[in-house]
Amino acid sequence: YEYLLSHPDVRSIALQDLRDGIFTGNPFTVMDSIGDLIYVGMDKAFYLTAYEYHWMKYNFEKCYPKELKHDRIHYHPFYNAGTVGGTRDVMLTFLTRLIMYFDKAPHDRSCDMATVGGVTHNHFFNYAFSGYPFQFGFEGRYKMAPPRGLAIRHKDTGYI
Q: How far is CA 123 from CA 4, 66, 68, 136, 140, in A?
């Protein structure tokens, strides 16, 4: 957030976990071709909703018992905090919301996934893009080759 504020020349930005992610293409080409949205990684593609993943349900309830509405989270995808991108304006708005909710979260818990998911579901629901070609979902032990044209590979798919 502070980087974007102090660098007004930055038009778009893509953030990726350093340890378990790799840029395999140009995310800015993908974002420019799809449109002015928030781009968020999708996690655990085999869970249809965030609440089906017990760890996420627990984190939503413990991190934000009142602040974030949980209705959309019951019915929509599980987003991953490790991959986020968008234009300067979208990212400043998104990061402002994240900071607001992080300030309310308990500081003795890891609330990053709940915060990104909650902000995406509740404030950017109609303006979010997740998945291919921006990001390949978390695949864990399933060794699949990433699809052609992919911009960001996140988590261990067994291929680099």
A: 20, 15, 10, 23, 29
In the predicted model, what is the mean pLDDT of residues 32-61? Answer: 76
pLDDT tens digits, 86-121: 999 999 999 999 999 999 888 888 888 888 988 998
Q: Rounded distance, CA 26 to CA 154, Å?
A: 14
**Looking up tokens 């080409």, which residue turns up?**
29
Q: How far apart are CA 4 and CA 138, in angstroms?
A: 28
Cβ count near 131 (within 10 Å):
14
* Gap between the Cα atoms of 67 and 136, Å rounded: 30
pTM of the model: 0.84
